[in-house]
What does this fold into?
Amino acid sequence: MAGEGPLFHPYFTDSPIRNNADVSQCDWQISERMHDLLFENGVYKPSVKAYLSTTHFEEHVDEFTSILVWILKNLSKYN
It folds into this structure.
């Protein structure tokens, strides 16, 4: 997971993300499938960083977190 403040994006890699070269080495097929599953579960997150704002309530964050955790635990089943 990388980002600053309200910006975030999960990267699928075994290495730390420090620069654009590190990002280019990530597994983008898994990332694309994660985004597909998010959308299928009612969450629109662009393929770039997501943004939290003051319009998001704790319930929104909890729902997103629950869906994301489920996806991450089950992602290998959908590849």
